[in-house]
Amino acid sequence: MKGSVKVVLVQESKTTMQRAQLFHRMTRLSRNPLIKMLAEESKDLVLSDINDTPRACQAIQDDWDSNQTGKSMNRLTAYNLSCCLRKRLEMHLNGPVHNRAVDILLTGCEVSLWLAEQFATDLQKAFPRLRTKAISSNKLLGLYGQELAVPSIGFPYSPRTYDLNDAIVVIVSHSGGTFAPLACSNLLQSTTKNIFVVTSEWDTQIGKQLRTMDGLLDASWDHLFSSRIFSTEVGMRPAEPCSVTVAATQQLLTNLFQYISAVILSDERFRQVVAATISEQDLRILEKCNRENIAALSDIVGVNECGFAIKKQISAEIDLRKAGNLWAEHVLENAKAYIMTFVYIFVTVVSGYPLIYAISYACGLDDTSNFVHLIRVLDAAIYFWLPQINVALLRLFQSRELLHRMGCRTVAIADIPWVAQSAEAFLSKIFACSYSIAGINVLSGNPNDHFVHRHTHRVVRGALVLCGRPDGRLSALATAEATVCLSVNQASSIQSLGGTCESITVGHNPFKLPLTKFGIFLKSNRPQFLCERMLVEKDAEGKRNEDDLAPSPVDQSLQCEGVKNFTQDGQERHSELNMALSSSVHLLPQKTRSASALLGAYTNIAEQSDRNRGCNGSSEHSSIDEVLYSAIQERSWSNEGKKLFEALDVNSDGLLSEDEVIDGLYRLETLFLEDHTRAMFKVADGNSSGHVDFDEFLKLLDLANIDGDIKVPSASRDERGNIRIEPSHEEYFGETLRKFNAGKTQNNVEFRLARSQHFSQELYESRIASLQRFVSMTVIFHQMGRRVEQFFETISFGLLGYRMDRTHSIMRIATTASPVSGADVRHRMNQLQLQSKIHYSIHVISMAYLRYRARKQSCYPEPDK
Known about the structure:
The protein is of the alpha/beta class. Helix content is 52%, strand content 6%. The chain is built from 30 helices and twelve strands.
């Protein structure tokens, strides 16, 4: 600039014409849907963020609704991502992909990275052959953005470990301006063009870089339709402790997970190539829980999705804030004792009448008494132990534990990784500016893994432990809750002088652990899963047996063999019986069980299921019987499949054409769409001959899921054959499965049906229930921090007040620092682009030479020697 800046002031109201260059450089700040306004001023920015959580999550769900396809920018971005994903999966179908190749890469820093890691974990479980990785942006910047790579000691990351060429990259950065993710958005353009970002609004620094990349690729294309930005629409939040930003990002990633799953499951070829373990039923259950999650969040924060306060005498918010108040008193006791000590010393020294001396003087003793030295010794002892005495008096007055240590408190947070780490970051920032006399230490760990090893030796009298418990009422999570409860009990059983830590649990299973201070129970706000329903029915059956009641006609009819063919009359009959059973079961509420009791109940059901299959005797005989049973079932189905194959083979040529298969499955009333059936036929027809033999026909039946003991209803699809993400409308999850399998004669079918919901229960825990626990922890910690903040502001008349929405670093999430330099990014980006072009050129030349040599050998074969 040569030391000078030229500024031109233009007032629109006084200009008669607008210059084209100036007009195209202008950005409308008002009434611009792509620019979010700053949040309104508030005395408590952290509380405003927490209260805005239900509204933000509801807005994201509405934006992702299928009815908003033509209006939602997120849906447009999701469509572009699905195009990249389909292209990537086509590469898997056309030939083997290098084993170092990464299909989907997620990256970010701090909270964004922890959310991305959970998303990558769920995606990898749902599609085991879809190679999904989550790597810190700092590590990527250190590996690929430096002339001398920063070694990732302790991690299996190096430039030769993973191949990122043409990988789908999702950058998670709520601010859109964090240094390392921003640098990665430039750096990774040299290896892939499939880069997307999850951020808070459309106009961010990373979004700008990605739009610039589109302009460099093709200047003639309207890049509005190649959107690369997923937005939570939460905008910039001035408060540094992250609450609504975390919840909104988790919500958007949940919707993105459902969308990716629907894209893959809609094509049978993709379903097979990634070995999908998720089903359409799992998506329906997840969507139902996702929609009901808004009501659960509203009950937790005390504000609904419209922003209105919920006034209830009994709610989770009341219990959460009571816990926050209790822990705030623990933190403030030293400050209050200090003030009490100051007042006592000031009054007694100025007046000249310490406590014991004043009492003795009132009793008639003077300075000439023989007890004057004893009185002075007692007053000196009071001065020496006055802080401890005041702390004890406070605890007695407030009915708190007397044997806790007197000093700085330690808060240990135990939950799954992303919840524990995010809650630790939130609480640390809440108390970042608090005074040392009211400061805390914050720790976190996974109670299913290393929490006991890392932190139980740090448990002392007065340590505060907050633990999130999975919902052990679900069979897939019963062992997880039992493990968590064991960790909490081990920490709470460590005693010194008769005292131990003060532990609080947060979860959905309404059972209080004996060694904890108290438990906070969240409302489920979801239908029961089939395993829960089975326990309710089992309890009702046990109650009837205790009362010596004869089996009802409903029970007797349920024991009869149902109709095997799924006719309309058969389904109506089973529906009537199921409704009658439901009315009888609802007379008994769900029994409250501990984690160990739930685990034992489900274990008993599993063992009973095995006994019903004839697996008696020793474990060796049991395993042999199971193998024989499976073999017999497989042989039986093979014989039935042979008969079906011969029946469908109209021309008796030993092969089935595509039309013969479609007509046959239609006559079987499998409810599959014609396009869906044609896709399955192409997958089964491995040699693309247009016909399938018997073995390929069995593979097709396996894809159609009509060969197993369990029949599953077909998915809802649109006119193009794509799966619709619709919520389940069942009274309890699995009601439709029971109807479809009403004619099964095996007694173990229902437990197998319940076991088929295990993955959906895991998704409920990782995507929904964990979010509710995180928001609950933010409510506790906010109440705790707010009480401490208000205390200093009140006693000092505002002079010693501080803001808990700030930290000493004066850095919001938008300016998070990076330990890795980005000075070499531009140079390395050009170098990687050149290297990629060279490798591509070598590949093209090699393939051309191989084709040339093959043609030459075909035209001029070598003579035999």
